[in-house]
Amino acid sequence: GKMRHACEVCGALFRKACEVTRHRRIHTGEKPFACEKCGRRFTWSNSLARHRRIHTGESKPFQCGDCGHRFRNVISFRRHQRTHTGVNLYACEDCGKKFSLSHDLTRHRRIHTGERPFSCRDCGMTFRLKQHLRRHQKTHEGEAPFRCDHCGRLFMHKRSLRIHVRNHTGERPYACDFCDQRFLRSDNLTRHRRIHTGERPFGCERCGKRFSCSHHLTQHRRSCTMTAPFTCTLCGQMFGKKSDSLGYHQQLH
């Protein structure tokens, strides 16, 4: 459906009138959902439901039998259990970092691919990790303490506000020592420096071709049809170059 309903305060568009009503609470500060145990109020019903678990004891139902530590979900629980066993089964093919759960490897690989699968329903911002989305959503609930004086946007952390303010002031504190370009963030500078140094840290495991950006490697992988002639005798993973990728991979075993 078309975005027919507009917020009269900021102009944000929504498909349904009820979505505008819910969105408006960001501007009005209305918190219609109250906890019957402690009286704390919330903008969203799901925030109240999450808060209620504190009183019911359901917030961390999974307990480790080795150390007694408790966890909110089974994924965190299983990840923790691996710290007692020391098992790390999954290795990142871009950087070699190892993980005890495939879920953790999938999440880590988004650093290399740039994927941001989690989207805020209120403002459309996207995030790499679900916990980053949850932290961001608190800004809509009025729980974020740091406000931008230029645009009013709220932040959970002072560092995030400081980086954001540079968009308004034009400050670029990170300077390239090879040319006169300056950058907003240190990771942008690191990526830019590879133009000068020729560094290509991301390699294709099929053909051995290397790239300066993980995004370029991801694009290349979609079209690379070369079969990998060299196989790791320990796990069966295949590689395009025996001396480079395979050698590094076997060190991980």
TrEMBL record:
The yes or no answer to whether the keyword Zinc is present is yes
* Highest taxon of the lineage: Eukaryota
Give all residue intervals belonging to the C2H2-type domain: 5-32, 33-60, 62-89, 90-117, 118-145, 146-173, 174-201, 202-229, 230-253
Subcellular localization? Nucleus
Segments passing through the bilayer: none
GO CC annotations? nucleus
Q: What is its main location?
A: nucleus
- So which residues are the signal peptide here? none
- Gene3D superfamilies linked to this entry: Classic Zinc Finger
What Gene Ontology molecular function terms does this protein carry? DNA binding; zinc ion binding
Q: Quote the InterPro entries the UniProt record gives.
A: Znf-C2H2_11 (IPR041697), Znf_C2H2-type (IPR050758), Znf_C2H2_sf (IPR036236), Znf_C2H2_type (IPR013087)
Keyword annotations for this protein, in alphabetical order, are: DNA-binding, Metal-binding, Nucleus, Repeat, Transcription, Transcription regulation, Zinc, Zinc-finger
PANTHER family reported in the protein's UniProt record:
RIKEN CDNA 6720489N17 GENE-RELATED, ZNF44 PROTEIN
Record-stated family: Belongs to the krueppel C2H2-type zinc-finger protein family.
**What's the name of the protein?**
C2H2-type domain-containing protein
